[in-house]
């Protein structure tokens, strides 16, 4: 357990490990199901999750599809919790969680059928290096799963600063098109070809009225219940602060599920496109 005097120094990723929250991708379990169907993930597939946190996505993806997963995170406490979670859910034989850095993945070229990076690239300073690594370990014909959070309207600068401080990484104003351009540009620099074959856009709901109930639920865990009253109050207050801040920020944001296929050659752009009626 982290000593109380150090609590205010933890960023959100470290906080997730402390409270053992099941840190989900945007869209939660629905996104896991949507990706599984549209990326054709099944028992024969080998999946790498970048920034797995406490294991929610890898565990639930394997539960749903029977796929084999490797989850990496730089936080050893998160990895420890992810291993425990996979065992509790009965999928630990199919999942390997390891401490590793996205900028230097410990895997051979073209090892994985699917690389799931969700929104973790937002937390990485050298985004081009990280994306190059994602693509290096992805097989030809494999799918890169990106679920970026982006701004659909300009937030106050003060809010961006507060969020940057909370997550321990500088937040840049990026729109959906900026994320797509970034991934395509990095792929071209590395002589890879990416084809965006699936995309769906979402906006966030205001969840301010549900935050206290949610925090009470996730803090009702044995390792936290053992703490003294003062420590519990400190942890509860900071957890609430995180979620109220993120909820405020997400009022300016949306996210997309983007599925890119790594190819040997890239097809020409499509002329006649459609949209749902």
What does this structure look like?
By secondary structure, this protein is an alpha/beta fold. It has a single domain (4-263), classed as Vaccinia Virus protein VP39 (Rossmann fold), CATH 3.40.50. It has helices spanning 12-19, 28-38, 56-65, 76-88, 127-137, 157-167, 176-189, 211-218, 222-225, 229-250; strands at 46-50, 68-73, 95-99, 112-118, 138-146, 149-151, 193-203, 253-263. It is globular, with a radius of gyration of 19 Å. Mean pLDDT is 93; it is low at 1-5.
Please state the overall shape, judged from the principal axes of the Cα atoms.
globular
Beta-strand content bin = 15-25%
The CATH architecture: 3-Layer(aba) Sandwich
Main pleated sheet: 8 strands, mixed
Low-confidence stretches: 1-5
Mean pLDDT: 93
Structural class: alpha/beta
What is shown here, in short?
The protein has 277 residues and is an alpha/beta fold.
Question: What are the main properties of this structure?
Answer:
disordered N terminus, alpha/beta, Rossmann fold, 40% helix, 10 helices, 277 residues, 8 strands
Map the helices and strands.
Blueprint: H1 12-19, H2 28-38, E1 46-50, H3 56-65, E2 68-73, H4 76-88, E3 95-99, E4 112-118, H5 127-137, E5 138-146, E6 149-151, H6 157-167, H7 176-189, E7 193-203, H8 211-218, H9 222-225, H10 229-250, E8 253-263
Helix pairs in contact: 1-4, 2-3, 5-7, 6-10, 8-10
């Amino acid at each position: 357990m982290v000593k109380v005097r150090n609590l205010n120094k933890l960023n959100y990723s470290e906080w997730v490990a402390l409270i053992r929250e099941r840190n989900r991708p945007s869209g939660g379990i629905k996104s896991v199901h949507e990706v599984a169907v549209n990326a054709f993930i099944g028992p024969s597939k080998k999946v790498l999750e970048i920034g797995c946190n406490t294991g929610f996505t890898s565990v639930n993806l394997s539960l749903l599809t029977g796929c084999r997963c490797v989850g990496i995170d730089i936080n050893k406490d998160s990895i420890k919790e992810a291993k425990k979670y996979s065992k509790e859910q009965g999928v630990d034989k199919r999942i390997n969680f390891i401490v590793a850095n996205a900028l230097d993945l410990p895997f051979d070229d073209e090892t994985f059928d699917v690389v799931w990076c969700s929104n973790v690239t937002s937390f990485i300073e050298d985004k081009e290096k990280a994306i190059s690594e994602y693509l290096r370990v992805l097989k030809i014909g494999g799918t890169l799963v990106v679920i970026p959070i982006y701004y659909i309207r300009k937030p106050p600068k003060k809010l961006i600063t507060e969020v940057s401080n909370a997550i321990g990484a500088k937040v840049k104003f990026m729109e959906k098109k900026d994320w797509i351009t970034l991934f395509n540009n990095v792929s071209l620099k590395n002589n890879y070809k990416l084809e965006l074959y699936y995309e769906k856009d979402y906006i966030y709901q205001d969840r301010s009225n549900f935050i206290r109930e949610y925090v009470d639920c996730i803090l009702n865990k044995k390792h936290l219940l053992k703490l003294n009253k003062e420590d519990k109050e400190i942890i509860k207050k900071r957890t609430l602060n995180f979620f109220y801040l993120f909820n405020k920020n997400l009022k300016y944001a949306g996210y997309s599920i983007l599925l890119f296929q790594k190819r040997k050659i890239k097809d020409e752009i499509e002329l006649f496109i459609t949209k749902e009626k």
